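Task card 7
Instruction: Convert sequence to structure tokens.
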Amino acid sequence: MIADLKPYAEYQESGLPWIGQVPGHWGTRRLRHACEMQVSNVDKHSKRGETPVRLCNYMDVYKNERINESIRFMTATASEEERVRFGLRKGDVLITKDSEEWNDIGVPALVECEAWDLICGYHLAILHPRPGLYGAYLHRTIKSHFIAAQFHVEANGVTRYGLSQGAIQGVAIPLPPPEEQAAIAKFLDWANGRLERAIRAKRKMIALLNEQKQAIIHRAVTRGLVPSVPLKPSGVPWLGEVPQHWTISRVKNEFRWLNTRRVPLNSVERGAMTSRVYNYYGASGV
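Output:
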């Protein structure tokens, strides 16, 4: 996919050491100039006299790349001022502002729906793109490792990490023309969809191979390696038949007990350790 992309005719220095050169017609801009930002202080409580709302919380953003109506938002209440101030608009980008892990800072999610009662919850910041910045492009930009690294560097804390408003607003991003932003976001959605489908297919294959591995192990340790060997009932319901020349024995008859604990094993523990297993004595390969 990337190999088919052609280079631009001209490049220029971005002025940002971590990003290097950008196409000659691109610019760079810090978030304070590219977005309006709000840091929510709406908690999960319901208070009498306030307006019922649906709350988009930290985990909704952390676990979902897109915020849409498929998510089951929790209900809470907010003042009318909070409802207006922290209401979500289509094209907004939410980011995690606080976390117990430094690398969970600045995780973004793109808002794809809006409603009068849907607002942003605590520990999140809302980025409202200004004219000239496409929300879907901003979302993909923040997911870039080199952009996200700015959040990680700016995060303060020891046992819990957080970003100040100034730290968020100071993050710099490359800024192509709006039509190019839309094309980049569309391409990344297409590429991401292909990769996700490939990942699902590989995971399905891995699950099937693990199932096959377990079947091979079960067959080898319960029937041996010679398929034509005569069988007999083992007397163990879960085991079924075993090769005719195998014997069945309990673990306690095949091992010498060595209890390294100072407290002796009780009858339940000893019974669990001496559950019935099978043992075979035969020629190699059977």
